[in-house]
């Protein structure tokens, strides 16, 4: 597979050389994402402000096929090479569709002065761009509780070092946006950038969580009126490659007579729930960020949703049933169990006991919040100013 990646790389470099010759750079912004086929809330909020400023922008959101993506990330053995070739054959239409998207992305990048990404993007990181191109990384999560990017290269759940080197993972960033100073060292490591490239000006998500969308809250209560009858507990675990969720043990210990249990899963996760006592809310119905606004407690694990919950001033409980395995396979930037033992538990029964006995440790919560809760306002405006400065050459 290494040879195929090198051929792919040389091909893109060659194609992009001619694309740059035939497409003039304009004072415009382009948004690129492979996180989803739809615009993220961050992107929508920035675009709304760009419209007010009459700044032209274009976007391409194209999610890469998960099977191909996983094969590329973890290659390195004969077996994986066979799996990769097999995946290419069986997913040919998806591969070709994504290749066409890469071609369109290269054209868009060559035409734009400011390029905004919310994760790793192949043409952005791999290729050499025009001199005045500015690349801004607006990571799709507000924090880095778990390790990612360069922090997990070679780990069981991380990217192969060969792939990272060949495809120049997280390369060419002029700015990486952060929402809280305490996360900056982790962002520096994960994106392999110097600390002076990290701007702690927040993302639109910070503005959204502080201001809120009360219309969405009313719609949630309207669709699920039972949420007004008892205190609400939201369970939203992070994505795991083996699809574990810890849900069964939580349900087994949960007291449905005292609380409503709301479940939201990561977009990559689907788990069938045949229990009428549980309120399962799909991201297609309501954003998880809106759902947590109706929660009294948020139970999660290593997810950056922790930071969103802090912004919404919701009490958090961390259910880390696979703590030691996760630390070994992926790695954590914050030693949750050791540093915050009163709000972090391995057993679901311990989490539920805190709820039932009303023994929530507010002091530990405030210590955590004071260190990791973003304390920034007008983040979207700051980003617009950054964009305008680079469009006008005043950065």
List the helices and strands and how they pair.
Blueprint: H1 2-22, E1 26-33, H2 41-52, E2 57-61, H3 66-73, H4 78-90, H5 92-111, E3 112-117, H6 122-126, E4 134-137, H7 161-166, E5 175-177, H8 184-191, E6 198-199, H9 204-211, H10 214-223, E7 231-235, H11 247-253, E8 259-263, E9 278-280, H12 288-291, E10 297-300, H13 305-311, E11 315-319, H14 323-329, H15 336-339, E12 344-345, H16 348-356, H17 362-372, H18 379-391
Parallel strand pairs: 1-2, 1-3, 3-4, 4-5, 5-6, 7-8, 7-10, 8-9, 10-11, 11-12
Helix pairs in contact: 1-5, 2-18, 3-4
Account of the protein in words:
- The protein is of the alpha/beta class and 395 residues long.
- It folds into two domains: 2-202 and 376-391, Rossmann fold; 210-372, CDP-glycerol glycerophosphotransferase, C-terminal domain (Rossmann fold, 3-Layer(aba) Sandwich).
- Helix content is 44%, strand content 13%.
- It contains 18 helices and twelve strands.
- The protein has helices spanning 2-22, 41-52, 66-73, 78-90, 92-111, 122-126, 161-166, 184-191, 204-211, 214-223, 247-253, 288-291, 305-311, 323-329, 336-339, 348-356, 362-372, 379-391, and strands at 26-33, 57-61, 112-117, 134-137, 175-177, 198-199, 231-235, 259-263, 278-280, 297-300, 315-319, 344-345.
- The strands form two sheets. Strands 2-1-3-4-5-6 form a six-stranded parallel β-sheet, sandwiched between helices. A six-stranded parallel β-sheet has the order 9-8-7-10-11-12.
- Helix 1 (2-22) runs parallel beside helix 5 and helix 3 (66-73) runs antiparallel to helix 4 (78-90).
- The longest helix is centred in the first third of the chain and has 21 residues, at 2-22.
- The radius of gyration is 22 Å and the shape is globular.
């Amino acid at each position: 597979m290494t040879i195929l990646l090198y051929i792919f790389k040389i091909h893109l470099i060659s194609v992009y050389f001619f694309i740059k010759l035939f497409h003039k750079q304009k004072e415009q912004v382009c948004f690129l994402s492979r996180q989803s086929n739809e615009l993220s809330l961050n992107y929508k909020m920035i675009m709304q402000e760009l419209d007010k400023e009459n700044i032209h922008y274009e976007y391409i959101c194209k999610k890469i096929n998960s099977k191909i993506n996983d094969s590329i990330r973890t290659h390195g053995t004969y077996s994986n090479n066979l799996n990769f070739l097999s995946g290419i054959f069986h997913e040919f239409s998806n591969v070709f569709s994504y290749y066409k998207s890469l071609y369109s992305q290269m054209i868009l990048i060559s035409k734009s002065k400011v390029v905004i990404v919310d994760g790793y993007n192949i043409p952005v990181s791999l290729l050499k761009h025009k001199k005045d191109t500015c690349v801004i990384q607006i990571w799709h999560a507000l924090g880095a509780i778990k390790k990612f990017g360069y922090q997990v290269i070679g780990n069981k759940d991380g990217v192969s070092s060969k792939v990272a080197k060949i495809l120049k993972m997280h390369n060419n960033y002029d700015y990486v946006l952060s929402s809280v100073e305490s996360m900056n060292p982790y962002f520096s490591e994960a994106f392999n950038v110097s600390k002076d490239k990290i701007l702690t000006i927040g993302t639109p998500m910070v503005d959204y969580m502080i201001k809120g969308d009360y219309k969405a809250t009313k719609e949630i209560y309207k669709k699920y009126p039972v949420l007004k009858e008892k205190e609400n507990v939201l369970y939203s675990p992070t994505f795991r490659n083996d699809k574990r969720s810890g849900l069964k043990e939580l349900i087994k210990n949960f007291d449905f007579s005292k609380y409503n249990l709301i479940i939201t899963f990561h977009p990559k996760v689907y788990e069938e729930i045949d229990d009428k006592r549980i309120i399962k809310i799909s991201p297609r119905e309501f954003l998880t960020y809106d759902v947590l606004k109706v929660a009294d407690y948020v139970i999660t694990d290593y997810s950056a949703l922790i930071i969103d919950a802090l912004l919404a001033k919701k009490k958090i409980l961390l259910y880390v049933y696979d703590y030691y395995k996760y630390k070994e396979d992926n790695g954590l930037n914050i030693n949750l169990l050791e540093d915050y033992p009163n709000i972090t538990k391995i057993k679901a029964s311990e989490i539920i006991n805190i709820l039932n006995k009303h023994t929530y440790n507010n002091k530990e919560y405030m210590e955590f919040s004071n260190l990791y809760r973003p304390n920034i306002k007008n983040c979207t405006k700051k980003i617009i100013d950054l964009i305008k400065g680079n469009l006008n050459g005043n950065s």
